[in-house]
Amino acid sequence: MTDQPPELAPRDWNAEPADVLLADGTVAVIRSLREDDRDAVLALHESVSVDTLRLRFFSPSREAGRLYVDHLFARDNTSSAALVALVRGRVAGLATAELLSPDSAEVAFLVADEDRGRGLGSLLLEHLAALGRRHGVSRFVAEVLGDNYGMLGVFRAAGFAATRRAVAGEVDVELHTDASREAVEAADRREWRAAARSLRPLLHPASVAVVGVRRSAGGFGHGVLEAIRSSPYAGALHVVHPEADAIDGLPTVRSLADLDDPVDLVVVAVPADGVADVLRDAAANGAGSALVISSGFSGTGRDERRRELLGLARAHSLRLVGPNSQGVLANGDGLDATLLHDVPEVGGLAVASQSGGMGFALLDLARDVGLGVQAFVSLGDKVDVSSNDLLAAWMDDESVAACALYLESFGNALKFARTARRFAEQKPLLAVVGGRSRARQDPSVSTVGVGVDALLDQSGVIACPTGAELTETALLLVEQPLPAGLRVCIVSNTGGVGALTTDRADGQGMVVEPTSYDLGAALRAAVPGAVDVRNPVDLGADVTPDELTAALRAVLDAGETDAVLVLLVANRLTDRDALFAAVARARPSGADVPLLLVTPGAAFEAARGLPGVTVYRSTDAAIGALGRAMRYAAWRRVPADQPEVELGTRGVHARTWARSRLTDRHGEPEWLAPSAHGELLAPYGIHLVGRLAHGPDEAETVAAEIGYPVAVKVADPTVLHKSDRGLVRIDLRTGRDVADAVRRFTDELGRDHVDVLVQPLVLGHLASVGLVRDPQLGPLVRVASGAGPVGSWAEEVLLLPPVGAADAARAVRALRLWPQLVGDHGLEEVDLAPLEALVMSVGRLAVDVPHVADLTLEPVVVNAHGLFCVDVKLRLAEPPELDTGIPRRLRS
After folding, report:
1. Residue 710 phi/psi, 5° resolution?
2. Which of 31, 134, 494, 510 is in Cβ range 3.0-4.6 Å of 505 for a Cys bridge?
3. Sheet of 327-330, strands arranged across
4. What angle do CA 225, 226, 227 make, to 5 degrees?
């Protein structure tokens, strides 16, 4: 190995250890090479086959491997970055990067023969690329033999921008280390598969062991054991007790190590101080997962004891739920390992809850509305297994039709956003988020930041304010097809209820269109005594079952609605149960229009279970569920919109420019003056209206060139409360007015001269666009409507950058400003494209230049002539490091 050129300065290649999931669900560790790894790394080179050596060193000689190990551990070697992968403490893989220039390195990989096919190469490449990015290495090169199909496959599947060139049996590969969209997607897909595999013993256990059951009745251990025994679970059940020979008639074993075979799921209900010992016992058994019901991990020493549990679990590939969990329900497999009193019927909903009590409430609510549950996990303290893991496991599980979450924190919010979006693109994902009031009171201690709504909305998650609304919505989504649009036809046997329901539907954004002439005629023919065949349809209190069936079939066949909502109030004029059956008969086989029935009071119980019909007790419940389903369906209909995330030439220049300004100030934040705005913002199509002027004479000249009337304001960004201090003047119509205003500014500030911004008066619709920061999500794009005076903003929407065209359009259309922009109320219609483009540009800037700590474009004036940014506030600061979930690593 030749010495590196002298211009390559030494670099500290140290990387923090990271727990990772291999493709088979095994937990491994990736960390930097250490001096004491020499023997293990040499043993790796000595253990691989001769053919593996040939593929790595282009020679079958073991001496080549020994020489390279000598090079890696040479004292004067500061140009090599090296990572090792450890599987159960054994060095199973090595990745190296040899600097070729300040921004490029040659990479190579070696994986033990016994560990090939487990995804180690891909993981090492991701972590090596991240290490390179931190040290300014933007390009990897590699020379690979043409028959090294494994390594070529790793490069090909990594998702990094790559070029390949075949020369004389070798392939030269060049990779860009930027975390491109393709690289992020590829890593996520691999992680989802690995997480699903690792959770199989937890979610579908073939054997269960309970540790911590008292000899006498009572306690958590007894509660879970009784639940398992009373459930139809057909797997093996073991009870572990250090002294008793039998408990409740079941034989016991002294420890898990006494069992012949590994246990899939170990339920731990011992006091907190004994949990670590049980996990050691489980590790010796080779168990796949542990459910820790034990509590008492709060208070002094909390973090230390939790870290011990996590360390034990990770070291032995043991997936851990809890502590402080209320159990796991594998309803499809007949296993109830919870403290739940009443178990719902088997169905398609999977539930994960950070709060055990809230999780039980969701299950009770599901049972009350007739919603079947497939699985439930009480996450407890989330030391290991999180909602991200469970979403990955349930994503491709055909028995799961929808998922419901109760969350109070996000372990990795950005990864959750990507995982949730992928899940919601396939099946409904609903969530109730707690802790919002705590976030408003003290954002510094809350794990639920201001961006939670942006995270949920953009990811397609159906946010629900209460558990009842969540289960009501999930019931509809599990039982009915997704609505194709926002149209709803309301059919009732009483006019008043139909009128009130129409008002509620309108409030949810639904469209209650009058029936066509043909449908009206068909309804008249079906129900001659109908009171009103317009929408809402009033069939009369004495409608017969046959008439009701005929009327509903006419509505369903007409193709004029995206959902049918039937409202029936029981009376003595007709047979209530027969009417309910008539609703079910009306639905043709394979119909793709949701059919809902609302019947209040005691009649609800009689109507439950109608085939093909979703039944609600109240109109509010039905309308709320249908509105959420319609909005989710609309989100699903928009094609996936994923803008690029890698840096282009513009982004490289902008990031370098911002970084250099902060370097010149030794990292001190800076509010940019208007004179500097253009350098950063103009390449993104963001321009401040008006021109800068120095002193009263130049301001007068600029005003004359712009054209009166004009506004004049102090351009110094360090001057606060400009309007309150009279440092902003508008509607100036002469040069003397402009010059006088500037002189007053200098008097107020006590300066000899002042720079001012001279702007034409621009009238139109007011908006605000900018960036705000969330402690977990980082920068968020903010777009808001103007409501009254400048600076009084309402109805803001937050978006995770980068922002695609579809998300920008959704944000603008969600504002109260939107009806004005499209010409409602007699106002002039304006083009929405410039405002949407501005939202996307700000999102692009947030990705390219993380040093933009604050940005406010306010007001933004939109009119028939275009879009005008009247004021810009922009602050640069060193960005905090965010955990994006790339490269892949388990939470620590």
Report:
1. -135, 170
2. 510
3. 335-338, 327-330, 373-378, 346-353, 402-407, 429-433, 462-463
4. 90
- What value does the mean pLDDT of the chain take? 89
* Pairing between β-strand 765-774 and β-strand 793-799 as defined by DSSP bridges: unpaired
Q: Could you tell me which of 700, 693, 697, 654 has the C-alpha nearest to residue 677?
A: 654
Residues, the chain, total?
892
What pLDDT digit, counting tens, does each position of 213-225 carry?
988 878 899 999 9
Nearest-angstrom CA–CA distance, 434 and 405: 11
295 closest CA partner among 225, 383, 204: 383
Looking at this protein, which amino acid is placed at residue 480? Q
For residue 656 the two structure tokens come to 């370098």
SS3 of residue 27 by DSSP: strand
Q: pLDDT (tens digit, 9 = 90+) per residue, 702-737?
A: 999 999 999 999 998 888 888 889 899 999 999 999
Q: Are 266 and 209 in contact (CB under 8 A)?
A: yes
DSSP letters for 179-247: --HHHHHHHHHHHHHHHHHHTHHHHS-SEEEEE---SSS-HHHHHHHHHHHHS---SEEEEE-SS-SEE
- Contact between 519 and 566 under an 8 Å Cβ cutoff? The reply is no
Of 701, 682, 683, nearest to 691 by C-alpha is: 701
446 pLDDT more than 50: no
Is residue 352 within 8 A of residue 390, CB to CB? The reply is: yes
Is 557 in a helix, a strand, or coil?
A: helix
Q: Which residue type is seen at 735?
A: G
